[in-house]
Amino acid sequence: MNTILEPGERSSFIHTEKKPRKVQKRVIVSKGEKSLHMQTLLSGMINVGDEFIVDDEKSGEAYHVSVSSIEVGDKRQESAQAEEIKTIWARAIDEVIVKIAVSRKETTKSFEMKVPGDREFIIGDKVEVSGRKLKIVRIKIRDGAFKSRNGISIMAKDIKRIYGESGEKIPMVLSKKGERVVIKKRDSVWSLKRSKTEPDAIKS
Hints:
The protein is mainly beta and 204 residues long.
């Protein structure tokens, strides 16, 4: 049986949900090598890995961040209600620095790229860094896992390090009477054949 309410009359069965109350919390934002101490209004449950905009009430600056750690009292937790939180540790992801390591023989070179956090890097693709084209062969993501299958796409904000290769071939080294001879890429097959007819040619 339906109950008809007169104007201005409220049913005792109607419940109105209260919106979570926003509270001001301290957020320490890591941006590159800087740590920014900010204050922002938050409500509800906050979890590690959550993304939101920190709008600093004092400076007026705003950053898109990802929560790295939550401090409640003297302990770190994976999640907590905003009211319980003492400090939120986060990192800015609107623009990030991606580190790239390239190994060749016994040396490793490191490069850095500043890119938007939502830029995608695909394993197997090439990326240009400092005028050099590098092939992405493996990516370490922020949770510690490695991805190496071609075609996998990962956003810059989730990347810990990219591992690449330059594609440069190591020159062939032959022995010639105790000397070391390096055949460079520009040497042609014709020039190698010709060298066999000359004195002190390379013996097989």
